[in-house]
Amino acid sequence: MAAGVVAGCAGRGGAPRPASPAGLAPPVDPAADLAPDLVDLARFDPRFRLDIRYATPANFMGRVLYPLPRAVAQRPVAEAVSRVQTRAEAAGYGLLIFDAYRPWRITRAMWDETPPESREFVANPATGSRHNRGCSIDLSLHRGGVEVEMPSPYDDFTAAAYRSNTAAPPEALAASGMLEEWMVAEGFVPLPNEWWHYDWGEWRRYPIMDVPLEDVTAG
Fold this sequence. Notes:
The protein has helices spanning 41-44, 75-90, 104-113, 170-185; strands spanning 38-40, 49-50, 72-74, 94-99, 136-143, 146-147, 188-190, 197-200. The protein has one domain: Muramoyl-pentapeptide Carboxypeptidase, domain 2 (2-Layer Sandwich). Strand 7 (188-190) and strand 8 form a beta hairpin. Helix content is 21%, strand content 14%.
């Protein structure tokens, strides 16, 4: 059994989950040489604020995708984000986390239901998402519990979400720039077309996972 993941993918009540249909299984990356070591971010660092949009209908899919508002990530990712939280607090801010580990089946649903012209904003399930590895964080900043203005809303599928966007209000650009500076300093790589998305530098070392969020065991 891989560390941090429930063996057998048993469903609620102990009944085994059916295997993925042929051709619908997540890809296997031979470069992944580390076993998962997932931690629950809310327990790991209670300073984090969570706003898990995919556990509500308030997301680009317009329906609930996660059965519970939970964020989990690989332990080194959680440790690094905790250090970013400390950096943010020193400047009078805190971190607002939208998403972390995402089961591969959700990535597939997003791809299947997104129009081809907008698919640059969703991961191709044929290669998997870094969210599927527990190595990506979607986040923003808050001040006193109130989300700060950023260049676009979260999951905005327009050029306004690009890091190259300079047309946003100066305060929004400054906030996005601060977050990027702190995240990069702790080992994250920013995604060019989504100001909220950051990948852990060693994401390739973790496997693509499809364990449902409610079945993940995390420290």
